[in-house]
Amino acid sequence: MKARRIVLGLGALAGVAVLAACTHEQGRLSFSPGYGLFYNDQGDTVALAYGLPNSDDVALMLQCPKGSGRVEVSDSARDQTATAIVLTADGRKTSVPVRAESGEGGDAKILSGHLPLSAPALQGLRRSGLIEVSSGHARYSIAVQAAQRAGVERFFRVCS
Known about the structure:
Elements: H1 2-23, E1 36-41, E2 45-51, E3 58-65, E4 70-76, E5 84-89, E6 92-97, E7 99-102, E8 109-116, H2 120-128, E9 130-135, E10 138-143, H3 149-159
């Protein structure tokens, strides 16, 4: 009798695990807890990089020649069928047509495209500090931490 309860208990637990797996959102990526949106002044350009601080481990990169108002958006090609990077922030969506390029070493593919600093999703990021990034079936969200808000504002100010 005791063995039967254990088997039934394990069966119920397995059922819950299967249900949880079925309800997990397909394509949602998660990154290291150390990831953040960091400002970087690169001389003639400024950048916001979503990744680990002081590393090449970067997911989303926004770069802008100072004063140009023109932003290059790049991300790793996690879905080889992606033709655009879609940014959604503060209820505003912007689709950025992209081209795929080989990354350093020729292994990884990088998706890259351009849009104006005034694009609705970028301005939504500036206001809200939140943005969702998707390309093909892969997607993730970025929440700007309080300590990084000044860098985001500086990016917009120096880029415009």
